[in-house]
Design brief:
alpha+beta, FAD/NAD(P)-binding domain, D-Amino Acid Oxidase, Chain A, domain 2, Glutaredoxin, 3 domains, eight-stranded mixed β-sheet, seven-stranded mixed β-sheet, 24% helix
Length: 488
């Protein structure tokens, strides 16, 4: 595939013209498509495969991502078909040895209504996102549409598909996975390391003889065989099986191969595995793209960062890439914000991804337990140029500009209900400060009584649920708003 950052390329007659071309229909691409659809942005999603990904691979939906799903209108569907992670059960020589809890349990609170990870097979997550995309009137996904060429000029991006069609877009987003052809074409390097040289088999299997009450764990054996775990997948008759092999071994992903490893490392018989619905193998790796943007093309999800599956961080970080980029593309494309707003995507997401990448690696190596950090509620953008904290003398632990905006009650329902949608929200908490006249379509304003998670003050909440500006009064608010909303 060729890529040229400035070359003026002659266009075919009547190319398909869209605002945004999204390459890849995984969780990242579908989340972005949903977010753009509700903003009235004309997008096209192209996917080289013939259908949505069929495996359970990224099965853990962290609390912060559940909040994203709440905003997108799919949290009820996710909860209805998903479920909590079952307690681990350690087995040895065919006998139960005791429980093992993967992470500390937490209870929901008014400010953080989603407290624990939700188990949801990746294929189900994608089905839910795709259904929501259709509800929003978004584009059909073009399956079996592989990118064969990509060029860009000062006005947009031109892509050629393998069937000969040409697409012209103002911007393009590479959401095409860890082996991203778009990233390769852009010449963007991927810097990283092998977290563990031992290959891992992952498979969706059916084992009717095994109970679904626990996440079944079989430790490494004395003869050198690696760990094996079998996790029931809520809302399905399937289990996700993971098995570690020694370096230099090629896991057998066939039905017979999966049956053999189950029989060798557990108390189950080979024939107890009645079906293998999907299987793959990989070596845990941690890597990140050297940059997340080249001109009018952005990298998101696994195209930008690849994680060890430990701690369930990769899919969640990917979805939040899309959530960060969606509102910014929408604002720029409808002329409501300066194009410079798009510069903050890499500024915010690259260090965020680096932080999570390091966390995933530590968890994989047993250096850190799954806990508050893996829930991702503490992530934010305090150092972003898009963040303005005008108050002084704040107590340690106080909510600051750049932090996630907490949920909570207000007269009309929940704060998350007030935040939901493509707009910003100006929240006046425990103050009678006079509020400026801002575009009511772009900013919704609410007053609530003093509320401990916020304290008192004014908070401008971005469309992605982070506090962009905070102050005791409106001083500087209008100037800040002009940074993100042209002519306001």
């Amino acid at each position: 595939m060729a890529f040229n950052s400035v070359k003026e390329s002659p266009l075919e007659e009547s190319p398909l013209t869209v605002d945004v071309l999204i390459v890849g229909a995984g969780p990242t691409g579908l989340t972005l498509a949903c977010d753009l659809a509700r903003r009235g942005v004309h997008a096209l999603v192209v996917e080289r495969a013939g259908a949505l990904f069929p495996g359970s691979r990224g099965k853990g939906i962290q609390p912060r991502t559940q909040e994203v799903f709440d905003d997108l209108g799919i949290i009820d569907a996710a909860i209805a078909t998903g479920g909590p992670a079952p307690v681990g059960m350690i087995w040895q020589d065919g006998a139960r040895q005791g429980e093992h809890r993967m992470f500390d349990e937490t209870e929901p609170t008014p400010d953080a209504p989603y407290a624990s990870p939700l188990l949801l097979p990746q294929w189900r997550t994608q089905e839910i996102l795709y259904a929501r995309l259709r509800e929003l009137g978004g584009p059909d996904v073009e399956f079996g549409a592989e990118l064969s060429d990509l060029t860009q000029d000062r006005e947009g991006v031109t892509a050629r598909l393998s069937d000969g069609r040409t697409v012209r877009a103002a911007y393009a987003v590479a959401a095409d996975g860890g082996r991203s052809t778009v990233r390769t074409a852009l010449g963007i390097g991927m810097t990283g390391e092998t977290v563990d040289p031992n290959p891992i088999l992952v498979a969706d299997v059916r084992i009717p003889a095994l109970d679904r009450d626990n996440w079944h764990m079989f430790p490494p054996t004395a003869d050198g065989a690696g760990f094996l775990a079998i996790c029931p997948l809520p809302g399905t008759p399937d289990f996700q099986l993971t098995a570690q092999f020694t370096d230099g071994t090629a896991p057998d992903t066939s039905l017979d191969g999966v049956r053999a490893v189950v029989a060798a490392r557990t108390h189950l018989a080979a024939d107890d595995v009645t079906e293998v619905r999907w299987a793959s193998d990989f070596r845990p790796r941690a890597a990140m793209a050297d940059r997340f943007r080249e001109g009018r093309v952005f990298l998101a999800g696994d195209a930008a960062h690849v994680h060890s599956p430990a701690g369930g961080q990769g899919l969640n970080t990917s979805i939040q890439d899309a959530y960060n980029l969606g509102w910014k593309l929408g604002a720029v494309l409808r002329g409501a914000a300066p194009e410079a707003l798009l510069d903050t995507y890499e500024e915010e997401r690259l260090p965020n991804a680096a932080q999570i990448l390091a966390l995933s690696t530590r968890i994989h190596r047993g250096e850190q337990r799954r806990g508050a950090a893996t829930r991702q509620l503490g992530l934010g953008y305090r150092e972003s140029s898009l963040t303005a904290e005008t108050r002084t003398g704040l107590a340690e632990g106080a909510l600051r500009a750049g932090d996630r905006a907490p949920d909570g009650p207000y007269a009309g329902g929940r704060l998350f209900d007030a935040f939901r949608g493509p707009h910003c929200t100006l929240l006046a908490v425990g103050t009678d400060a006079e509020l400026p006249l801002l575009d009511e379509e772009l900013v919704h304003t609410f007053r609530i009584d003093a509320y401990p998670p916020y304290g008192k003050g004014l908070f401008l909440v971005r469309p992605d649920g982070y506090v962009g500006w905070a102050g005791e009064d409106t001083t500087g608010l209008t100037d800040y708003f002009r940074l993100t909303h042209r002519g306001s």
